[in-house]
Specification:
By secondary structure, this protein is an alpha/beta fold. The chain has 8 helices and 12 strands. 36% of the residues lie in helices and 23% in strands. The two termini are 29 Å apart.
Length: 224
């Protein structure tokens, strides 16, 4: 799926923290700020695909104004966060592609609505994500993020990590990893596995690297 750009606007820390976790697991670049910074964010990030707008309290009256800004800028979509008690007066934007979530909605629901707005008909299933501590592996887009920041893995480094993480607690020899990750057509030496393991550990950082264990005389395993 194509990487997207999201502008996140909120004045409450609870939504800021929740959506930070949600967005870190998606293939998106994020620019975030308060409602007072909204216009500035639009100007600084002109090629955005989605605006997530917290419309709690007095900000509910600003939804129409925010919608008009999106209409003037292009074809970006809008996800509105609204209080349940304000649903009676809330009107979903009609001039842009839009949806809403109620304040307090679960992370999975928020992620599903974001995916539907950004990649309609091609949403990633929740089963395509693996999470270990602060690391997220997106099995659909071959991306790894730690603390919301993407790691620069080569394909084979990613494939090695993803294979071990999806088979936790099981030790694989170097030859077995060559067959399962590199494929039967690989004719190089088995020590290439050691090289890739070192690179993966270095990129993961010391805390996560502890999960990738060396089993002396056998091979490697991922400890859950």
């Amino acid at each position: 799926m194509q990487r997207k750009s999201v502008i996140f606007v909120a004045d409450s820390l609870d939504n800021a923290h929740k959506f930070q976790r949600v967005l870190s697991g998606l293939d998106v670049d994020v620019a975030a700020g308060s409602s007072l910074q909204f216009k500035k964010l639009l100007a600084q990030h002109p090629h955005y695909d989605l605006v997530i707008y917290e419309a709690r309290g007095d900000a509910l009256a600003n939804v129409a104004q925010a919608e008009q800004m999106l209409v003037e800028d292009g074809s970006a979509a809008m996800l509105v966060i609204v209080e349940e008690g304000q649903l009676g007066e809330f009107r979903l934007p009609v001039q842009v592609k839009a949806d809403f979530v109620v304040h307090g909605a679960g992370a999975e629901e928020c992620a599903a609505r974001i995916r539907q707005l950004l990649w309609p008909g091609n949403e990633v299933s929740a089963t395509d994500y693996l999470t270990v501590e602060n690391m997220t592996i997106n099995l659909a887009t071959y991306q790894v993020k730690v603390g919301g920041e993407p790691l620069d893995f080569t394909y084979l480094e990613y494939a090695l990590l993803a294979f071990l993480v999806t088979h936790p607690g099981r030790t694989y020899s170097r030859d077995a990893l060559l067959r399962r990750v590199w494929g039967f057509d690989y004719y190089g030496g088995s020590r290439t596995v050691d090289v890739h393991v070192r690179r993966v550990r270095a990129k993961l950082g010391p805390d996560l690297a502890q999960h990738l264990e060396t089993v002396r005389g056998v091979g490697y395993l991922w400890s859950a």
